[in-house]
Amino acid sequence: MDNFIYHAPTRIVFGRNTVSQTGAELAAHNVRRTLLVTGGSAAMRTGAYAQVTASLDGAGVMHTLFSGVTPNPSLDLVEKGIAAAHAFAVDSVLAIGGGSVIDCAKAIAAGVFLEDYWAQVETRRPVTQALPVFTVLTLSGTGSEMNEKAVITNEPLARKWSLSGLCLCPRVSIIDPQLQSSVPWHLTAAGGIDAMTHVMENYFRGRTARAATGYFQEETTLQLCEGILRAIIMSLDELQRDGSDYTARANLAWAASWGLNGLSGSGLSGGDWTSHALEHALSGLHPQVPHGEGLAVIFPSWMEQVCHSVPDIFTRFARTIWGVSTAEEGVAATRQAFSRWGAPDRLSRWSIPASDIPRMVQNALSYRALGRIVPLSAEDVTSIYTRVL
Ligand code: NZQ
Ligand code: ZN
């Protein structure tokens, strides 16, 4: 097991009717004026916005609204949000939404201290100063409610890159699974698949310690990963039957938060993240591609590409997650589950032309994380995309 630092400082307030605690939580952090960041309409439709503002008013926290954050948020939006934060002289940001809204809020929180947000992203260095971030989660999947990353797209450059820094970890995240009872199935599935891939990006870096007993170097982390993966799979199956099932919503939400808060990568040297690099290259160029759906297409193709190079961990995955025997069967079972949940399995879903592949390959190769488990050439990356055209 490699050395690691585990530090997940976000306070989680989880469960039914917890949104009413938002005001008290912010007040306890000495917040006086906050920028409320929301997306299109989900925050309003779910009633979250009304509950949050009532709670803030009750606690004497002033607020101003910055709405209209779109999925795969753009740099342009972040810059508008930074201007709004300056204009209202806020001392914090409060996101109500899914990963896109939370990431945009985090970017605004950091951006108020930066001369040029994108220049900081390009340095690949963590930020050390940001306004305190708070979240009310309405869609589970990304884990952004409990981690230090903000993923933003620079549309003119077609680059979707993250900014990170411990100061971007939300101070408090309110997770009331009731807010997700009306999430349509395709978004539920995309979020669940995204959360699975966060765990899997780490998991496949596991290394055998003793072949004779099947004991791995990161046995504890791998078993935690397997538990999280099984919980997500079972919860998605339950939610496909009944999207209003509170228990399944709650379990999916909690598993997704743990999928990307540092735990699933502990001892695994930061995991792999090739599929995420390839998905970010895809949705950086085509922002209409939902992140979780892009991963549903790309991740199994990456598995197919590399599973023979690291057979022990892929065989373990096949056995413990899907109850099948071989690495290839594990890849097939993953594809079947994604397709049973209605996720796309080809890039043609978004009419991506083959002529875009060289640009996506070039973009993907600029990610430092690419190919940590199995080194990948430009030809290999081309194959991963081409296989699922
Ligand atoms: O725009 P609104 O009205 O809010 O609607 C959203 C959006 O259309 C809707 N939605 C959210 N809550 C809902 C709801 N619809 C009905 N009921 C509710 N309760 O869902 C749609 C998709 O929302 P979005 O926030 O885009 O989805 P997601 O949570 O999957 O976030 C995706 C973004 O997060 C980034 C992705 O790259 C992408 O930009 N990621 C962030 C990560 C992080 N910060 O750690 C890691 C991830 O790997 C990922 O890269
Ligand atoms: Zn993801």
TrEMBL record:
Give the E.C. number(s): 1.1.1.1
Q: Where is the Fe-containing alcohol dehydrogenase-like C-terminal domain?
A: 188-387
Question: In terms of domain of life, where is this protein from?
Answer: Bacteria
- Molecular function terms in GO for this entry? alcohol dehydrogenase (NADP+) activity; butanol dehydrogenase (NAD+) activity; metal ion binding; methylglyoxal reductase (NADPH) (acetol producing) activity
Q: Identify one Pfam family in the record.
A: Fe-ADH
Q: Which GO terms describe its cellular component?
A: cytosol
Alcohol dehydrogenase iron-type/glycerol dehydrogenase GldA domain location? 9-177
Is the keyword Metal-binding in the record? Answer: no
UniProt keywords (A-Z) are: Oxidoreductase
**What family is this?**
Belongs to the iron-containing alcohol dehydrogenase family.
The record's section on PANTHER family has: ALCOHOL DEHYDROGENASE YQHD
- Protein's UniProt name: Alcohol dehydrogenase
| Record organism | Oleidesulfovibrio alaskensis (strain ATCC BAA-1058 / DSM 17464 / G20)
